[in-house]
Amino acid sequence: MRAFPVVMPSGQKYWTVLDDDLEVVSVADRWLRNLRFGRDRAELTTKAYAGGLALYLRWCRSTGREWTAAGRDLGLFMVWLKYTPAPRDSVVPVVQPGPGAVPVRGERRINRVLVAVRGLLSYAISVKEAPRSVLGQIYELADSRDLPAEAQGEDGGLFHRLRPVHSLREPETQVDRAEDAELVAMFVACRNARDRLIVLLVGRGGLRRGQVAGLRRSDVHLLPDSRALGCDYPGAHVHVRRRENVNGAWSKSRQAWVAPLDFLVVSAFDLYYEERHRLLGSGGSDFLLVNLFREPLGEPMSPEAIGELLERLSTRAGLARRVGAHMARRAFASNVADAGGAPDEVQAVLGQKSLHSQAPYLFPDPKRVRAAVLRVPSPRGLS
């Protein structure tokens, strides 16, 4: 069992599951195809789900279980996931049981696999490929009291929902922002104008790497007044849009939004345009960021290439850790808040739909937090 990419005649891609005879697993393929084109999910989502389904179907085959009836044994599947390594070069590894065995997959990864399995089984029930009794094996009836406050609704009333039967408690992971000094060091370590623009787009524009890779030249408006271009948004900015891209770039935000640019980013655009014109001429792809120093010249950079670039810059700058695009995005949001930005302003510059979505991105400056404490009047002044 393996995940496999499928390219449609239109150029759009999704991932499916192949069995050991390289035949498409029909029900899995229909569900993944429906997710991609019927529910507008990202290609990378189908890739992650296909990988999870391949693991589930491999476990069913190796243990002699029918995949439609194995929902009642998902607890055993979770143990198998935790300790069974993936095959390498078609060789199935031997599991070494016993106390002290080292897990090969963490709680977060196992939970993500279970999401894919429940999705497949639920779809199979809806198309009568699996009996309805399977639904009771993977979900239980629960109420809203254990949901976060923001998910309980404005009326605060009690409602019932289906809760997964099988899940692991994920350990809290420490997330962090990039330090301004780290981003400056990465900027200085760049060897060309294109790479410097990328660092500024993630560090002072707050864009995700998929959004950076998906920008077109037509999305960039650098004039103080762009009404001549049919755009009423004032000042320099870029339009971030979700669209199908040949380089696999994908904007997580469903709605289009505008990212304002400051003078540093505008200056970086000027230098990059000069560099691109000098190396490629006036033609080339409408994608903003393209290959300038390696073949195929002029082809758009992929999100993976941008991630690898940031990793190389972290090493070249001598940083003690790897700074990625998401850490730079958190730094941008925190800097906007520390500079006095209101919550709705932080929400707007991040392109988020909900005010609650910005919470994981904010890391208040300790100096600002201390200043807030010191502003509290002394009780002596009240006597």
UniProtKB/TrEMBL annotation:
GO terms classed as biological process: DNA integration; DNA recombination
InterPro entries assigned: DNA_brk_join_enz (IPR011010), Integrase-like_cat_sf (IPR013762), Integrase_catalytic (IPR002104), Integrase_recombinase_N (IPR010998)
Any one GO molecular function term: DNA binding
Keyword RNA-binding recorded: no
Pfam families: Phage_integrase
Classification via SUPFAM superfamilies: DNA breaking-rejoining enzymes
Keywords linked to the UniProt accession: DNA recombination, DNA-binding
Keyword Transcription regulation: no
Tyr recombinase domain span: 173-374
Entry protein name: Recombinase XerD
Lineage: Bacteria, Bacillati, Actinomycetota, Actinomycetes, Kitasatosporales
